[in-house]
From TrEMBL, chain A:
This is Sulfur carrier protein ThiS. It comes from Marivivens donghaensis. It comes from the Bacteria. InterPro entries: Beta-grasp_dom_sf (IPR012675), Mopterin_synth/thiamin_S_b (IPR016155), Thi_S (IPR010035), ThiS/MoaD-like (IPR003749). The gene is thiS. NCBIfam families: thiS.
UniProtKB/TrEMBL annotation, chain B:
It catalyses: [ThiS sulfur-carrier protein]-C-terminal-Gly-aminoethanethioate + 2-iminoacetate + 1-deoxy-D-xylulose 5-phosphate = [ThiS sulfur-carrier protein]-C-terminal Gly-Gly + 2-[(2R,5Z)-2-carboxy-4-methylthiazol-5(2H)-ylidene]ethyl phosphate + 2 H2O + H(+). Keywords: Cytoplasm, Schiff base, Thiamine biosynthesis, Transferase. The keyword Metal-binding does not apply. It is found in: Cytoplasm. It holds the Pfam family ThiG. Homotetramer. Forms heterodimers with either ThiH or ThiS. Pathway: Cofactor biosynthesis; thiamine diphosphate biosynthesis. The gene is thiG. Catalyzes the rearrangement of 1-deoxy-D-xylulose 5-phosphate (DXP) to produce the thiazole phosphate moiety of thiamine. Sulfur is provided by the thiocarboxylate moiety of the carrier protein ThiS. In vitro, sulfur can be provided by H(2)S. The active site is at 91 (schiff-base intermediate with dxp). 1-deoxy-D-xylulose 5-phosphate binds at residues 152, 179-180, 201-202. Residues 2-244 form the Thiazole synthase ThiG domain. This is Thiazole synthase.
Amino acid sequence: MQIDLNGAPVTTAAETLSALIEEHGFDAASVATALDGVFIPRLMRSTTPLHGGAKVEVLSPMQGG
Amino acid sequence: MFYGTELNSRLMLGTAQYPSPQVLRDAITASGTEVITVSLRREGQGGDAFREILRDSGCRILPNTAGCHSVREAVTTAQMARELFDTSWIKLEVIGHADTLQPDPFALVEAARILCADGFEVFPYTTEDLIVGERLLEAGCRVLMPWGAPIGSGQGLRNIEGLRTMRTHFAGVPLVIDAGIGAPSQAMAAMEMGFDAVLLNTAVAKALDPVAMARAFGRAVTAGRAAYAAGLMPRRDMAAASTPIFGQAVLA
């Protein structure tokens, strides 16, 4: 299905958020995730299904003021 | 002092815009800070190196919601930051205007209420407005962070009398001057006025020598706090001779 990952269109075979994280090689322990603007805790990624057009954000620590 | 955490250093330092990761490391050390601010962005390059700097610094992490313009964005970002940094501290920024980066006080209070109810320890980036400050305390905040001037402007304490009023009005509430500080003298002035800490970034990161500037800020904040604790003399409109008149020779 077609989804939006960090602002870019992506075609994925992943059916859950955790599968998507794995598919794209993110370090699961050092990123935070949101689906359609809602925070998804680490423990809920494997039970959170993706849908076509889903907007997924995968964030990590960055410099800030 | 800040949600039950006592700090030795009253300088909080941002981690953005340094010329290199090594300069950032050295600036953190030279400043003596115990609290550094960080952000969340889309996973890209260099994440590991930055995580290592955070770990090695030994500092408490204060994640921000920089760039958020709505309650929802700020709340979601705060929730993501809490998981990623394993801290309930959040520097809450809800920006109302792109040019001034002035906080949106209405959205700020609403986001603060949601986050405080969810167990966050909120450090709200606000203005010197007293009523907004009252609303933030009612929402559950136990710290207020009024701006000195617009973020990154280096203008210092733009409304010094307003900030003085705020300090008096919120006696006993930890107040941190956040944003707009450009020089150590400005940070020191804030500390002499009785503010509890100063948070800055650009003034150090964009100095010609950020490490030396970090050290200068650390000392200014220490000196300003010591001066406040020592009690400044009252200001007078007229001169008052300091040398005694008694025993002066008549030579005229």
